UniProtKB/TrEMBL annotation:
May play an important role in maintaining the flux of carbon towards starch formation. Belongs to the carbohydrate kinase PfkB family. Keywords: ATP-binding, Kinase, Nucleotide-binding, Transferase. Pathway: Glycan biosynthesis; starch biosynthesis. Gene3D superfamilies: 3.40.1190.20. This is fructokinase. The keyword Cell inner membrane does not apply. The keyword Protein biosynthesis does not apply. InterPro entries: Carboh/pur_kinase_PfkB_CS, PfkB_Carbo_kinase, PfkB_dom, Ribo/fructo_kinase, Ribokinase-like. It catalyses: D-fructose + ATP = D-fructose 6-phosphate + ADP + H(+). Its EC number is 2.7.1.4. It is an enzyme of class 2 (transferase). The lineage of its organism: Eukaryota, Viridiplantae, Streptophyta, Embryophyta, Tracheophyta. Residues 82-388 form the Carbohydrate kinase PfkB domain.
């Protein structure tokens, strides 16, 4: 379907260069008892993903500015963010050497992450407007994450701080091919403790798109907050975007994960899933069979996207379906690739929702999204690797030539 000679209509103007913050240090040490470890490791492949917009960093915030449960506004009068992302934000510790176990890794790169936060930053890097709603610990990592959102021009007025729980951590093992296994430290972490009463509903209701995952459905009180936020968005006419982002070790059981992920399925307008998630949700059916994928297409769904890593993605609407090929790149770390893809397509849809009815223009937007994901796997970590709009357009032009 995709022609290598396709002319891209995405304007290259206004692609602002963002400052990418990366962190590295030798092995992590804890001076006190480490957070309760949620054990289990499971390899999860994330498909090629796509874009985010770029923005100049705002002023850095000192620790004293961040004390308290809510993030204080700086008093500026900005437009309401087009895309509000809800869920977890955490620290990924990514090994500096691939192909080793966590115990064998000589050093780790400290990288901010968490799927919804990755999407929010990805959209801002691409030049769009986004916000993040979630909870972190009132600790050094929580302060750091709040600063990173601000530096990347993400509205974080909906961010909350918990004085009694730590910011979540995830240690990542990388194979030589860049695939990942996770060991999570949360149980409970602050993101699990967001309450309905702490939601910034005004921020949600004014958005064009409300994006979320499934990790926020695992435990209370965050589950109730998730459901209330999505309900408020739906009632306000906001488009609901859902990426299940399966992390099976975090769930009590596979059956519980499947039931809860599907419990909010029929309310979403846009859903992005991977081949592995299709196989999981359909209990082992063939994820490459269109008839199997169509079983997951509910009557009110506007767009179903299936990411396939370097192969690109498939798309399904009520009226048309097809495949858009991805870019071939050298893989270093697949962390954040799916989130970059989501950021890419949502950044395009936030500008023009009529793309959902125009297959040719939707395909161009998905090429952009695929390029976002491809560029992300070339570096370690999620947020540090998210591309600017300029970088994505340059990669697409080179691919055409």
């Amino acid at each position: 379907n995709a022609s290598p000679k396709r002319i891209f209509r995405i304007s290259p103007t206004m692609a602002l260069q963002a400052t990418t913050t990366t962190f590295s240090f030798s092995a992590p040490t804890f001076r006190s008892t480490p957070p309760h470890a949620l054990t289990s490791k499971r390899r999860i492949s994330i498909k090629a993903s796509s874009s985010g917009l770029s923005s100049p960093p705002l002023l850095s915030l000192s620790r004293s500015n961040l004390k308290g449960r809510a993030f204080a506004s700086d008093g500026s009068t900005q437009e309401s963010p087009s895309v509000v992302c809800f869920g977890e934000m955490l620290i990924d510790f990514v090994p500096t050497t691939s192909g080793l176990s966590l115990a064998q890794a000589p050093a780790f790169k400290k990288a901010p992450g968490g799927a919804p936060a990755n999407v929010a930053v990805g959209i801002a890097r691409l030049g769009g407007s986004s916000a993040f709603i979630g909870k972190v610990g009132e600790d050094e990592f929580g302060y750091m994450l709040a600063n990173i959102l601000k530096e990347n021009n993400v509205n974080n007025e909906g961010m909350r701080f918990d004085p009694g729980a730590r910011t979540a951590l995830a240690f990542v093992t990388l194979t030589n091919e860049g695939e990942r296994e996770f060991m999570f430290y949360r149980n409970p972490s602050a993101d699990m403790l967001l309450e309905e009463s702490e939601l910034d509903l005004d921020l949600i209701k004014k958005a064009k798109i409300f994006h979320y995952g499934s990790i926020s459905l695992i435990t209370e009180p965050c589950k109730s907050a998730h459901i209330a936020a999505a309900k408020a968005a739906k009632e306000a006419g906001v488009i609901l975007s859902y990426d299940p982002n399966l992390r099976l070790p975090l769930w009590p059981s596979a059956d519980n994960a499947r039931d809860e992920i599907l419990s909010v399925w029929d309310t979403a307008d846009i859903i992005k899933i991977s081949e592995e998630e299709i196989e999981f949700l359909t209990k082992g059916e063939d994820p490459y069979d269109d008839s199997v994928v169509r079983k997951l297409f509910h009557p009110k769904l506007k767009l179903l996207l299936v990411t396939e890593g370097p192969e690109g993605c498939r798309y399904y609407t009520k009226d048309f379906s097809g495949r858009v090929h991805g870019l071939k790149v050298e893989v270093v770390d697949t962390t954040g690739a799916g989130d970059a893809f989501v950021a890419g397509i949502l950044s395009q849809l936030a500008c023009d929702l009529s793309l959902l009815q125009d297959e040719e223009r939707l395909r161009e937007a998905l090429m952009f999204a695929n390029a976002c994901g491809a560029l992300t796997v070339k570096e370690r970590g999620a947020i540090p690797a998210l591309p600017t709009k300029e970088a994505v357009l340059d990669a697409l032009l080179k691919a055409v030539v």
